Amino acid sequence: MFFLILATFMIPFQAVITPLFSILHTLGLNNSLLGLVLVYTTFQLPFGIFLMRNSFAALPAGIEEAALIDGCGYLSALYRVMLPIAIPGLISTALFTFFTCWNEFFAALVLVTDEAKFTLPVTLTVLASNQLGALNWGIMQAGVAVTAIPCVVLYLLLQRYYVAGLVAGAVK
Fold first, then answer.
1. Are 98 and 90 within 8 A, CB to CB?
2. Residue 164: is its pLDDT beyond 70?
3. Cβ contacts of residue 85 below 8 Å, gap of 6+?
4. How far is the CA of 94 from the CAs of 37, 47, 151, 161, 165, in angstroms?
5. What is the pTM of this model?
6. Are 114 and 98 in contact (CB under 8 A)?
7. 17 falls in which pLDDT band (50, 70, 90)?
8. Which DSSP category does 81 fall into?
């Protein structure tokens, strides 16, 4: 099952955008932020599963076995014992996923046509190309700052978990 999920990495997003547009249109989610969120979730899920599987695989099996012997069920052992130990991997996965979705351009450009619902990358592109070749650098720099601020704040808030997740496999 894991290798089937990994195989989805080989399908480029540009190859499925037309059928995806048709499916969203059929479901009535075309030109909606909910449809865009579903698309982002769907296409980030394999990467998240890949990272979380590796995060849980790095944990010692004896910890789960000890929890099961102590009377925890499988879900209870996962929730009470394994998940708190895998927090750095979870935070790393959340950060990578957020940064990818926050900066995604192509799906937002194709699937959302209402200018009021544009994401920040699409809005910055509209600002850059909407003035007959004249570019207002002040607006562009302000837009880039607005785009970068949530990423920087989120990273600074979760930095200790992120760094712990990156170096967890380096020291055994």
1. no
2. no
3. 59, 63
4. 15, 11, 12, 11, 12
5. 0.81
6. no
7. very high
8. I
Q: How distant, in Å, are the alpha carbons of 88, 94, 108, 117 from that of 34?
A: 29, 19, 12, 11
How high does pLDDT run on average in the chain? 86
What single-letter DSSP state applies at residue 35? H
- For residues 164 and 121, the model is more confident at 121
Quick: pLDDT tens for 53-73.
Answer: 988 888 888 888 888 898 889
Question: Most distant CA pair in the chain: distance in Å?
Answer: 70
Tokens 């925890």 locate to 72
Q: What angle do CA 73, 75, 80 make, to 5 degrees?
A: 90
> Hey, what long-range contacts does 162-165 have (CB within 8 A, 24 or more apart)?
162/88, 162/91, 162/92, 162/95, 164/88, 165/55, 165/88, 165/89, 165/91, 165/92
